[in-house]
Amino acid sequence: MNQKEYDLHDVVEMKKPHPCQSNSWEIIRMGMDIRIKCQKCGQMVLMPRREFEKKMKKVLVKAETSK
């Protein structure tokens, strides 16, 4: 399986746009399920990791890591 690199607080692009016409989402929770937040209208969506990986197109902005 092609594993895409994404992490908490990354901004990702999904294959289909949100009804508000935005296509960028921030990952705000990761686990078995992934919660993403629309960057335009603020709506949050929770989906299983497997479904998220199928619907995600690419990472737009990597989160700043403070290590």
UniProtKB/TrEMBL annotation:
InterPro entries per record: DUF951
Pfam families hit by this protein: DUF951
Protein's recorded name: DUF951 domain-containing protein
Natural source organism: Jeotgalibaca dankookensis
